[in-house]
């Protein structure tokens, strides 16, 4: 998709401004609070100015980058200079980012055209984009369903054709799960592969920025432009320099694909299990070798994640106090703020933070409190190390691991809002990847029929640390093979 549009711009078949106008028209037609509600802020003027700059280069006979002039969306947790950046929270309702995140700087440098900021679960805390302070995003195929979360706005915008691709962030599945629900490709890179500078932090040892795209090749193209070491993020790492799209050889002969024992799928929708089994067979038909592996501590991943993540949340959320930036208790409409500094902190957070954010802050504060730190947080970190070791042992035997992205297809809005635990279970196949820091990609591997709608099923491929090259190549072959068989 990206290459096709690039060629049209470079050859003069279409201008970047025309392309931007086309996609802005799609947003105008489909979006807004009464529509899809995938976008929170549309940056029309900035987009057209960026597109015009690309057209000027083409007119001057200059070669442009593959992403130059290509319209994309940005999850609203990623700072964009001069643009409202809310993280879908009322506490940042009036926050205008004073700087660009590193990924935005990199994309600006190659001429990519941002159309605005996409909806999400508040501070990335959720799996359905129902926790947004600005209303839920609807599923592009069935408005009664959720698009997944927390990057639901980005996934829905890509699936609905409002943008060519979008940026998301993934802390426990927030790129991959909505990609699976909406039928697009979602890549969570290795922890450190992409700079987190300018991402409003949720859980700093788990967060990672990545792309949601229409094809695996598009994901490779975007990753090539946003990856690399950044002096502003001490956890970031060097990239090889060779564009990831150059590693898509179309050949997986002899590659070893790890598959889990069937008993690991006992709580999985059997229709999804069938598609995952078929995806494994497709890779085998292409010359790959299937090998059953054990991840003995995988069953503890969800419990570990929901101790470590809230603990980091409680620390990261401390900065939102209404003093340095964002809304203050004085802006609240319900009652006057207290007189003391602590009362002002409490009132600001009580008025402007949503229920799920408060829940996770309280869970994390409890887990880190005196008398419970060793019992919960410290023990969870030890099990996290065991999960890491499980993946290390598995990757001595196989090149990648195949498993479902989600235990179910997109569910109805409101189905899980009253029971947070069932919502958390949506992450059962994704959180271990963040705990271990390995890269993983979700791509469509089929559909299931529900209420007369063909809902996408996502298959998840997990790669070795910093082996996005191998992961993307296998995913590309699986994508092309699945397309041929459907």
CATH architecture group name of the domain at 2-247: Alpha-Beta Complex
Rg from Cα: 22 Å
Biggest beta sheet attributes: 11 strands, mixed
Unreliable stretches, pLDDT < 50, 5 or more residues?
none
Structural class: alpha/beta
- CATH-wise, what's the superfamily of the domain at 2-247? Amidase signature (AS) domain
CATH class of the domain at 2-247, please?
A: Alpha Beta
At CATH level 3, the topology of the domain at 2-247 is Amidase signature (AS) enzymes
> How many E strands?
11
Number of helices: 15
Residues in helix, %: 25-40%
Order of helices and strands: HHEHEHEHEHEEHEHEHHHHEHHEEH
Strand order of the largest sheet: 1-3-2-4-6-5-10-11-9-7-8
Task: Tell me the β content.
Answer: 5-15%
The end-to-end span amounts to 19 Å
Task: Average the pLDDT over all residues and give the rounded result.
Answer: 94
Based on Cα principal axes, name the global outline: globular
Textual characterization of the structure:
With 486 residues, the protein is an alpha/beta fold. It contains 15 helices and eleven strands. The protein has helices spanning 2-11, 16-30, 44-59, 102-110, 152-159, 176-182, 216-226, 270-285, 301-316, 341-352, 355-368, 373-394, 420-424, 431-436, 468-485, and strands at 39-42, 71-75, 113-118, 165-169, 185-188, 209-213, 256-259, 289-292, 400-404, 440-450, 453-463. Strand 7 (256-259), helix 8 (270-285) and strand 8 form a beta-alpha-beta unit. The two termini are 19 Å apart.
